[in-house]
């Protein structure tokens, strides 16, 4: 048997409910595939703030670093919304990404035939969408310095941030994106604002330079405003997208909403070495927390990404993905993806049905 | 008779074709409303680059400043895409906005009942969408300093930009947005990334402060990633949106694509005093330039905004808007908005039909 240590970070809102389902799914899958998981649950986000006063306790980061992979539920909630920056749940997440050095965020947006009606886009526009956004996650305006509050040369009070990319940061995310595109449709679209921003001009230059290492991948460039339009107009034109931290934040959320089922979408954040961070792309949904209404499938599919990208356990990963599709085929739906003729279930029951499918 | 001087900036691609239509529409409307226009045509963008070597010649900016309003076609094209920053058509547009100090960009996105099928969104999601994006246009990361290329403390080569807002910049755009919302549905949604960026934290603080001057307008806040999703999920929830320069660039383009008819959408850019800048939101469409295929209605509606917001000629403005609707009702469509059962026309013929409707 292979043994792995997994740090579970349930976090806030519906986080604990969906993590509990994903944990059971991992355990059963492991027992069938000869894998033994050691789980360690640690606090992060609002939960950690309430418990320890900080959104990412040292023990949590240490446990995460020492494990083979990290599975996160969700963070945030109204309760902490007015907190100062260092005491925001979001800050804990950013510190975790930085601490784990997971610079490459992979976010698939796939319209499943079973769920095509969930999209607000017309059927013929939505069906068949299958794209992967590769977002730079530990650089750019999220982390750039200088940042803060101050006064400008005229004495006006200002707030400011720095959008900055170094060549090595662009090169390494570009390689991840080209590798990703190579395993998919061999088409990579780099999204930037190189007609205005110097940081984007360097971005475009370096992506073009790295593309010479991947002659089999077709590279194109698109301005971010146009990309935001094209995702609505014809999302099927995209195979793999690479973009910076803030544009990736915006566009990958837009892309996921285009599928209409953000309760289904996982993500993987990977570094050069060390454990990856896996999490559903949805938020903590405080309005339905604790009501057994959450869709656990995004977290279950994040566990599948954990197996594939984090541990190299492709077969076990595939088993989970197949089980999720089978559960959908058998007509089980949580409220967010429910449509007539199907069976409405809660979070726990959905979890049980996935176990049945496995 | 009232007399106004209008600077016409046809620019590149389809720009000259659509400006020529809008000029005729202004002229006829003026003659019926007792308005006399003096038109002055000047080069900008790629056209100016070819003619003078710079994308915004001094004479063009001077003429624009001395006129009562400026009507722009479109700028840019493949030919100049690889140019260095100071010789990009886009730089001319940015210099024009800066030179005219037009800090408030109003971009309506309206789904007309006649064109609801043009949207890629389902009919029930698209119909009735009527929102106004108020984008800050002369600040933020577009103009923030320091910017450029260099090396960081580790000696890595970097490209960088500064996202920066001063209180006075936020306050003045907030007032424009609240005034705009007051004349519409009295709901203002401020979009930022205050969970991560200091510039956004100051933005949110000031928008909240200014809101006390407008107790009749309901203010809400939304993170930019969520806004990108909500525009796809349920665009009807929005009345007026206020956001910064770069988020406004992305979201207003997304919003316009949601209408499915970006060939129909105008924009107005206004300052504290001095002439406003009016332009269609679509680009220069080099692929169809010179083929009499462009939809001139966005520019015609920009001329209507020019009359209303730039000159205070509400009645003349209304006349143009009514004529455009009448032309659509009579079934005339350019290729971009064509659907079965209607009459396909070119740019010039569409212009003639608008004149007929007037
Ligand atoms: C919670 C927030 C800080 C985060 C981000 O902006 O990266 C989230 O929106 C995401 O995309 O994971
Ligand atoms: C052409 C470009 C510089 C411009 C911008 O980014 O502002 C355009 O996209 C717009 O929205 O008017």
Automatic annotation (TrEMBL), chains A, B:
HAMAP family: LeuB_type1 (MF_01033). Homodimer. It holds the Pfam family Iso_dh. It comes from Camellia sinensis (Tea plant). The keyword NAD applies. Binds 1 Mg(2+) or Mn(2+) ion per subunit. It catalyses: (2R,3S)-3-isopropylmalate + NAD(+) = 4-methyl-2-oxopentanoate + CO2 + NADH. Coiled coil: none annotated. SUPFAM superfamilies: Isocitrate/Isopropylmalate dehydrogenase-like (SSF53659). It is an enzyme of class 1 (oxidoreductase). This is 3-isopropylmalate dehydrogenase. InterPro entries: IsoCit/isopropylmalate_DH_CS, IsoPropMal-DH-like_dom, Isopropylmalate_DH. GO terms for biological process: L-leucine biosynthetic process. PROSITE patterns: IDH_IMDH (PS00470). Belongs to the isocitrate and isopropylmalate dehydrogenases family. Its EC number is 1.1.1.85. Keywords: Amino-acid biosynthesis, Branched-chain amino acid biosynthesis, Leucine biosynthesis, Magnesium, Manganese, Metal-binding, NAD, Oxidoreductase. The keyword Amino-acid biosynthesis applies. GO terms for molecular function: 3-isopropylmalate dehydrogenase activity; magnesium ion binding; NAD binding. Pathway: Amino-acid biosynthesis; L-leucine biosynthesis; L-leucine from 3-methyl-2-oxobutanoate: step 3/4. Its cofactor is Mn(2+); Mg(2+). Residues 5-354 form the Isopropylmalate dehydrogenase-like domain. Catalyzes the oxidation of 3-carboxy-2-hydroxy-4-methylpentanoate (3-isopropylmalate) to 3-carboxy-4-methyl-2-oxopentanoate. The product decarboxylates to 4-methyl-2 oxopentanoate.
């Amino acid at each position: 048997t292979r043994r792995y240590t997994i740090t579970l970070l349930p976090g806030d809102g519906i986080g604990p409910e969906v993590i509990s389902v994903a944990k059971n799914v991992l355990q059963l899958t492991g027992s069938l595939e000869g894998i033994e998981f050691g789980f360690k649950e640690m606090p992060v986000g609002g939960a950690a703030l309430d418990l320890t006063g900080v959104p990412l306790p040292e023990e949590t980061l240490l446990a995460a670093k020492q494990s083979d992979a990290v599975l996160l539920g969700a963070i945030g909630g109204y309760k902490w919304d007015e907190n100062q920056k260092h005491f925001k749940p979001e800050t804990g997440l950013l510190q975790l990404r930085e601490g784990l050095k997971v610079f490459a965020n992979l976010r698939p947006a796939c319209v499943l035939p079973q769920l095509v009606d969930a999209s607000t886009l017309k059927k013929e526009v939505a069906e068949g969408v299958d794209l992967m956004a590769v977002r730079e996650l530990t650089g750019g305006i999220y982390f750039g310095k200088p940042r803060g509050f101050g006064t400008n040369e005229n004495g006006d009070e200002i707030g400011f941030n720095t959008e900055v990319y170094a060549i090595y940061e662009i090169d390494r995310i570009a390689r991840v994106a080209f590798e990703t595109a190579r395993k998919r449709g061999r088409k990579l679209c780099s999204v930037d604002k190189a007609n205005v921003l110097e940081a984007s001009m360097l971005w475009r230059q370096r992506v073009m330079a790295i593309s010479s290492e991947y002659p089999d991948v077709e590279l194109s460039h698109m301005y971010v405003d146009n990309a935001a339009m094209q995702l609505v107009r014809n999302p099927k034109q995209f195979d793999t997208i690479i973009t910076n931290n803030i544009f990736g934040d915006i566009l990958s959320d837009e892309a996921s909403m285009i599928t209409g089922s953000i309760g289904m979408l996982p993500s993987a954040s990977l570094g050069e070495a060390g454990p990856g961070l896996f999490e559903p792309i949805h938020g903590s949904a405080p309005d339905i927390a604790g009501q057994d209404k959450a869709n656990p499938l995004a977290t279950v599919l994040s566990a599948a990404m954990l197996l594939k990208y984090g541990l190299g356990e492709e077969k076990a990963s595939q088993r989970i993905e197949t089980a999720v599709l089978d559960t959908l085929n058998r007509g089980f739906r949580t409220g967010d993806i429910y449509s007539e003729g199907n069976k409405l279930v809660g979070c726990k029951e959905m979890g049980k049905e996935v176990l049945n499918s496995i």
